[in-house]
Every structure is written in structure tokens, then in C-alpha cells.
Amino acid sequence: MITNTLQMTLLVEDQEEAKKFYTEKLGFDVVADQSFGAQWRYITVAPQQNNTTVIELVKAETPEQKALIGKQSGGQVLFMFHTDNIMEDYDVLHSRGVQFHSEPQSVPGGKGAGFKDLYGNDLDMFQPD
Hints:
Elements: E1 7-12, H1 15-25, E2 29-36, E3 40-46, E4 54-59, H2 63-68, E5 79-82, H3 86-95, E6 99-100, E7 105-107, E8 110-116, E9 122-128
Parallel strand pairs: 1-4, 5-9
Antiparallel strand pairs: 2-3, 3-4, 6-8, 7-8, 8-9
């Protein structure tokens, strides 16, 4: 039986700039950063409090992959992150230059705030009631 999500893949233009966004702006940890020869680099990041599900930052190589950067979810939210204090996290991330759609608002089941990553992917924070 499948019991957990281990890894999600995010196509990026530049692995180093994506790593900086997730670590310096969102405060994530680097879980892995390994090079395998000159052609392939394996980078995963995850929230500091939970390294069981990681986001792999994959450099887009083909024209098809490059066309998907910032559009992998077809205009929907790509990742939703759980928070236990949305106002505090909003203030911290906003001060680091994260571009939010709006301040946190009441949504069914809690409070939410949407923002974009460095490539325009829609991301959300959610604090349950």
C-alpha cells in the first residue's frame, strides 16, 4: 500500500537560482545537492520542519521541458504548503520579496495565501482552522 509522497519534480531554468529561491526566500532546507558528472545535478529541497516529502529541482533540457517552466500545473496551484501560523509566515516571506496575490484570507477550512515562485508557478500556504 502506498503510504506517503516522497518526491515531487519541478522543472526549472536554473537549478542554482531555484535552490536560492526555495532556501533564501521560503526558508527550506537543502536535502540533497549532488553532481553526477558534468551533465546531471540532483537537488532536493523541503520545508525545515518536514523533510519527508521533497521537491526535486530539475533543469529543463529539451524544448518541451523548457516550455513547461512556470506552467506545469496548467494554471492551477502547483504546491500547497501547510503552515501553523500563516500571518507570521506571510510577513516573513513578504519581507524576503515573495510576491503574494493578496494578504492571507479566510477560505473553507482555514486561511490561505497564494504567491508565485521565481518562474510564475502558483503556490499556496494554508493554515487549517
